[in-house]
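Re: your question from the hallway

Yes, I did run it. Sequences:
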Amino acid sequence: MNVIIVRYFASLRERLGRGEEQVEAEGVSCVADVWSRVSAEPLPANTLVAINQEYASLASIVRAGDEVAFFPPVTGG
Amino acid sequence: MTSRVQKDGFDPWREVAAYQEARNRDWGGRYGATAVFVGSLRDFNQGHPVSGMTLEHYPGMTESYLEKISAEARARWELLDALVIHRYGPLLPGEPIVLVAVWSAHRDAAFAACRYLIDELKTRAPFWKQETTPGGVRWVEENKS
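Structure:
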């Protein structure tokens, strides 16, 4: 698998107009790189990120086949 | 320790009674304290009326964080068991959103672990609330209370 699966939730999903897409893994080394592939805009403040369903940071390393998610602060409970 | 994410409504009090009934044999009757937290949908928020809510979640990650948080509570306090149930999908005012129930030998551990579970769930479990108000739908931006 040479792609990274990218997922968005809640207000960020609506803002981008999509919930999921794939990006080519070539040239992507961290979460921040993934964001710059999918949007020309800066990442909205307070956005949380996860790699393979575990919280991560913008500097976290991403590999081909990973699932990377971007979402606003959580509001459950 | 059991955690569940579900679309269907539930009665938290029946869930607590049924769980206790089913598990008490394993606990050997050693529980002396049960702490329960139930969060329900209010019909107002930040000064405006709320007629409904839709909860979005991240399937898979939600379940794994509920498990993680339960395991942390178990490592930190002496617990016999815990039950966490959380809704997703559409909800109406008055309906329960979340149940956290903790059984232990003594009250200190039960209160502390129950508080820990709901507080950690609110800051880490990937759920998002969208309210329906007279002005339309809007995403709840922060978990203040």
